C-alpha cells in the first residue's frame, strides 16, 4: 500500500457498505488491489441491516446471473448478513467502520476523502455506494411532525394491540404491512395506503402476498388514498370519495428516499435534471462527471440487490483495466435486440432508444437497461399494422426510428394523423384501460419499444422526467382532439407548456360562482357537476364527464364566474392560464367562434333557469336533488348505468330472469337491491366506470373493456376476489360457476333442473357435489350483454319500459328538466 507523508493511499476507496459497496470491496480484495471500504455506522451493510427483523429478501431478477465474490440468494435478512460478515472477514477486506465521509476533493489519481473528526484518506479512484436510505421522503401534511410517525420498522413483532397505518405502496411498505399483520396474536389492525390503484413500484411477488392478506382480512388496503392530516390517535385520509378519519396509534411512512444531493453535487457530480428524484449522470462504466469518481447501487438508480452486487464487481473490473467487460444482462438484451433490423450492439440500441424517445432522454444507462428488461422491441415494415382499433391492450409504445399513422376514421382508413419519431402512442389505453381507439400502422420502416402497463407505470412513478413527457403529450393530444378547428401541435405548444395537473378530491370546488379568477380547465379523469345559486339555494345545471373543458366563459369576456364547478368524484384536471387560452383564440378565429357559440348555449340555459325558477321552482329543486342522489351513487364516474323508474316497474323480475338466461344462469343484476330517490331506483348493477376500480390488481388481467366501453370479465378469471374488494358499489360478487342447466323442456316434462331464470347457489353447489367436484368461484358482473344481439337483455325484457340504460351526460342535464316542464 503506497503512502504519502506517512498517510495511507489506496488504489480504490469505496464509500458505503451496502450490497454494491460490499461486492466492490470483496472483488478488490480478491484481485489484490489496495482498497478501503468506508462505512459510517458500526456495522456492515446498513441497508440490509435496517430491514425489518425476519424479512425475506428476494433475489430478483431470477434470470440475471450474479457476478460477485460474495454469495447471495433469496433468504432471511439475518442469514444474508451473517454470510456476508463471514465472507468479508475471510476475504481480508480492509474495512473502516464509524467513519462518516464529509467531503471528497481532488482529481483522478489523487483524491482526498475527509472523515468526520478530522481524519483524511487518500485514493486514486473513488467508488460511491452510499445509497439513499438515509434521506427518506417526509410526510407532507399537517401533523407530519407528530411522534406517532416513524420512517423505519426494525422489528414488527414489537407492536401489539395497535391501529397501525403504513403509508407507501412500494416493496418496503408492503413488507412492513405484511410483517405487522403476520401474527394474529399481536392483534394489530393494519392498513396500507396507496395513492394510486396499481402497485407500480412493488415486485409482483409482494403484491400477490398483499392481496392474499387483504383477502384473508389481515390487512386493509386503501387504494386511491393519501394522508390529509395526522392527529394524536387518528389519521385523516383523503379518499376518492372525500375525507375519512380512522383510529391510528402509529404511522410507518415508507414513501421512498432521495439521493443526498447536496453532498454528491459538492463532490463535483452533475445530476440528470433538477428533479428531486433525479440521479447522477453516469457513463457505462459508472463514472460520473467528476472523472475518477464512480457511482453504483441505489444512488445510480438501480436498487435491486443483485444489480447492485453486479455493479460492485463490474466497477472494480473497469478500474482494474478490463474495459471490455459487458454487464451481466448483456446476453438477455442482445437476444431481445436480435430481431431488430440492422447490426448494432446492445449499447448502440440502448442509446438509440434513449436518445430518440422523448420520455427516456433523462434516464441513465443503468435505468435504461432495467427498463428494457421489462419491455419488448419490434421492427415494422411500412404499412404493417402495430395494433388495430378495439384490440385489447394497455401498453404504451415509444418510436425510436421511423413514424406511424393513426387511422382516426374507421369508415375511411385513408384519414390518418401522423406520429413522428421520438413520440409515444397507446397512452390512452395506459391511462384509461380502454381498448385501442384507432388502428396504428407503420408509415415507414419503424422500430418501436413497447412498455407493459406495469413497466410504464413504474417508469412514470420513478422517473419524473418521463412522467412529465407522457403528461405533456397526452395533454397536447387531448387539446387537439377537443378543440379541433385545424389546430396543430405548434398552436397549442404555449398552452401545453403552461399546463398544470391538479388532483381534486370528491366534492372539492374548482370554480366558484362570482369569483374573478381566469383559468381554464380540462377534465382528465373523473367528472364535474355545475351548479348555480338561485333563490339562495344551489341548483344543478349539468354534468361534465372526462374530456370536457370549463372556465372559458369568464376568460373570454372578462366576466365573473357564472356558476360553481365541483368534482363529482375524485378527479384530475389540467389547469391552463387564461391569458394563454385567450392568445390561442386570438390566433385562431375559428376556435374563437366555436367557443363563443358554446358559451351562448350555456348562457341560454342559465337564463332559462333563472327566468323559470318562480314558475316551476319545485321541479328545479327536485331535479337538483335527484342529480345529487345519482352522483352520490356512482353516476359521476359511470359510462353506462341501469336505472329503473319505479312509477312504471311492476316487479315482474323479467329483467333479472333475462339477465340470468343470457349468462349461463347467473344474473348480474339485483333489481331490489340498491338505493332509491323519489321514483328513481339505482339497482345493483355495474356502472362501467370511466376508470374502473375493478381493473386494478387483477392478476390474470381478466377484466377488459369492450369496443363500446363495457367492462367485462373473461374466462381467465381465477376467482381471487380482488375486483369484488376494489369495487366501491358492491356490483361484483364471487359465485360458483354453474354446471350445465337442463333445458326448459326437461324441467317442464321431468322436473329436471331449477327451472327458468337464475339457478340458485344451493342448486349449483348440490349439483356439483353430486358430480364429485368442487364448484369453482368466479367473479360475476354486468357486461352490458356484450356480444348478444339487441343489447342489454334487462332493458329488452322490461314490459313497461321502466328499465333504461343511460350515460350520465345524457341524463344529468337541465335540458331534460326543460323538456319535462315544457
TrEMBL record:
- Cite the Pfam families for this sequence: cNMP_binding, Fer4_11, Pyr_redox_3
Q: Which GO terms describe its molecular function?
A: 4 iron, 4 sulfur cluster binding; metal ion binding
Tell me the ranges covered by the Cyclic nucleotide-binding domain, including all copies: 359-460, 483-602
Domain spans labelled 4Fe-4S ferredoxin-type: 640-672, 677-708, 709-737, 776-809
Q: Which residues cross the membrane?
A: none
Keywords (alphabetical) are: 4Fe-4S, Electron transport, Iron, Iron-sulfur, Metal-binding, Transport
Q: Which domain of life is it from?
A: Bacteria
Q: What is this protein called?
A: Cyclic nucleotide-binding domain-containing protein
Amino acid at each position: 500500500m503506497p503512502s504519502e507523508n506517512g498517510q495511507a493511499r489506496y488504489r480504490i476507496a469505496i464509500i458505503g457498505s451496502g450490497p454494491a459497496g460490499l461486492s466492490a470491496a470483496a472483488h478488490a480484495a480478491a484481485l489484490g488491489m489496495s482498497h478501503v471500504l468506508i462505512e459510517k455506522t458500526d456495522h456492515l451493510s446498513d441497508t440490509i441491516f435496517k430491514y425489518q427483523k425476519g424479512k425475506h429478501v428476494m433475489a430478483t431478477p431470477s434470470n440475471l446471473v450474479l457476478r460477485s465474490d460474495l454469495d447471495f440468494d433469496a433468504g432471511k435478512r439475518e442469514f444474508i448478513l451473517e454470510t456476508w460478515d463471514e465472507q468479508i472477514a475471510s476475504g481480508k477486506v480492509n474495512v473502516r467502520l464509524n467513519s462518516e465521509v464529509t467531503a471528497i476533493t481532488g482529481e483522478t489519481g489523487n483524491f482526498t476523502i475527509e472523515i468526520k473528526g478530522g481524519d483524511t484518506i487518500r485514493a486514486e479512484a473513488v467508488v460511491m455506494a452510499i445509497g439513499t436510505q438515509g434521506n427518506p421522503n417526509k410526510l407532507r401534511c399537517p401533523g407530519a411532525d407528530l411522534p406517532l410517525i416513524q420512517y423505519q420498522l426494525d422489528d414488527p413483532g414489537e407492536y401489539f394491540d395497535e391501529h397501525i397505518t403504513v403509508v407507501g405502496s412500494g416493496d418496503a411498505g408492503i413488507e412492513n404491512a405484511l410483517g405487522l399483520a403476520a401474527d394474529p396474536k399481536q392483534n394489530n389492525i393494519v392498513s396500507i395506503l396507496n395513492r394510486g390503484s396499481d402497485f407500480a413500484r412493488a415486485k409482483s411477488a409482494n403484491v400477490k402476498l398483499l392481496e392474499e392478506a387483504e383477502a384473508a382480512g389481515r390487512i386493509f388496503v386503501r387504494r386511491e388514498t393519501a394522508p390529509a392530516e395526522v392527529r394524536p390517535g387518528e389519521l385523516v385520509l383523503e379518499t376518492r370519495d372525500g375525507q375519512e378519519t380512522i383510529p391510528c396509534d402509529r404511522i410507518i411512512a415508507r414513501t421512498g428516499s432521495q439521493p443526498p444531493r447536496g453532498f454528491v453535487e459538492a463532490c463535483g457530480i452533475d445530476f440528470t435534471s433538477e428533479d428531486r428524484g433525479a440521479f447522477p449522470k453516469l457513463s457505462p462504466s459508472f463514472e460520473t462527471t467528476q472523472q475518477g469518481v464512480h457511482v453504483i447501487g441505489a444512488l445510480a438508480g438501480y436498487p435491486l440487490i443483485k444489480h447492485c452486487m453486479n455493479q460492485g464487481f463490474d466497477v472494480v473490473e473497469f478500474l482494474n483495466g478490463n474495459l471490455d467487460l459487458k454487464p451481466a444482462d448483456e446476453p438477455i438484451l442482445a437476444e431481445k435486440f436480435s430481431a431488430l433490423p440492422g447490426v448494432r450492439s446492445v449499447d448502440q440500441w440502448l442509446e438509440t432508444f434513449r436518445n430518440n424517445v422523448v420520455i427516456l432522454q433523462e434516464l441513465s444507462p443503468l435505468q435504461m437497461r432495467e427498463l428494457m428488461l421489462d419491455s419488448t422491441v419490434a421492427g415494422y415494415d411500412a404499412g404493417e399494422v402495430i395494433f388495430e382499433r378495439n384490440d385489447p391492450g394497455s401498453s404504451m409504445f415509444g418510436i425510436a426510428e421511423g413514424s406511424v399513422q393513426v387511422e382516426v376514421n374507421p369508415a375511411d382508413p385513408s384519414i390518418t394523423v401522423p406520429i413522428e419519431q421520438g413520440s409515444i402512442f397507446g397512452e390512452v389505453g395506459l391511462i384509461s384501460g380502454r381498448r385501442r381507439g384507432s388502428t396504428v400502422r407503420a408509415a415507414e420502416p419503424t422500430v418501436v419499444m413497447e412498455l407493459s402497463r406495469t413497466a410504464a407505470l413504474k417508469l412514470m412513478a420513478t422517473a419524473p422526467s418521463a412522467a412529465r413527457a407522457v403528461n405533456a403529450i397526452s395533454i397536447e393530444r387531448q387539446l387537439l382532439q377537443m378543440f379541433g378547428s385545424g389546430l396543430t401541435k405548434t398552436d397549442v405548444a404555449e398552452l401545453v407548456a403552461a399546463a398544470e395537473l391538479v388532483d381534486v378530491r370528491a366534492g372539492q370546488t374548482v370554480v366558484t360562482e362570482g369569483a374573478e379568477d381566469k383559468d381554464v380547465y380540462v377534465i382528465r379523469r373523473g367528472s364535474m357537476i355545475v351548479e348555480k345559486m338561485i333563490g339562495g339555494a344551489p341548483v344543478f345545471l349539468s354534468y361534465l364527464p372526462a374530456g370536457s373543458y370549463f372556465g372559458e366563459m369568464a376568460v373570454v369576456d372578462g366576466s365573473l364566474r357564472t356558476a360553481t364547478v365541483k368534482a363529482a368524484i375524485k378527479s384530475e384536471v389540467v389547469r391552463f392560464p387564461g391569458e394563454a387560452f385567450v392568445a390561442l383564440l386570438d390566433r385562431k378565429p375559428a376556435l374563437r367562434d366555436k367557443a363563443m357559440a358554446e358559451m351562448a348555449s350555456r348562457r341560454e340555459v342559465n337564463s332559462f333557469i333563472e327566468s323559470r325558477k318562480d314558475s316551476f321552482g319545485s321541479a328545479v329543486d327536485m331535479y337538483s336533488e335527484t342529480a345529487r342522489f345519482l352522483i352520490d351513487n356512482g353516476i359521476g364516474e359511470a359510462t353506462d348505468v341501469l336505472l329503473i323508474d319505479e312509477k312504471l316497474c311492476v316487479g315482474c323480475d323479467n329483467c333479472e330472469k333475462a339477465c340470468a338466461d343470457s349468462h349461463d344462469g347467473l344474473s348480474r343484476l339485483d333489481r331490489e337491491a340498491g338505493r332509491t330517490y323519489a321514483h328513481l331506483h339505482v339497482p345493483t348493477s355495474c356502472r362501467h366506470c370511466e376508470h374502473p376500480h375493478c381493473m386494478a390488481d387483477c392478476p390474470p388481467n381478466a377484466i377488459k373493456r369492450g369496443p363500446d366501453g363495457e367492462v367485462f370479465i373473461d374466462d381467465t378469471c381465477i376467482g381471487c376476489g380482488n375486483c369484488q374488494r376494489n369495487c366501491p358499489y358492491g356490483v361484483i360478487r364471487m359465485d360458483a360457476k354453474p354446471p350445465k342447466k337442463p333445458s326448459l323442456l326437461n324441467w317442464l316434462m321431468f322436473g329436471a333442473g331449477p327451472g327458468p331464470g337464475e339457478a340458485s347457489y344451493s342448486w349449483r353447489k348440490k349439483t356439483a357435489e353430486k358430480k364429485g367436484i368442487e364448484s369453482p368461484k368466479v367473479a360475476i358482473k354486468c357486461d352490458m350483454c356484450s356480444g348478444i344481439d339487441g343489447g342489454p337483455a334487462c332493458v329488452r325484457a322490461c314490459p313497461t319500459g321502466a328499465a333504461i340504460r343511460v350515460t350520465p351526460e345524457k341524463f344529468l342535464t337541465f335540458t331534460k328538466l326543460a323538456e319535462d316542464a315544457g
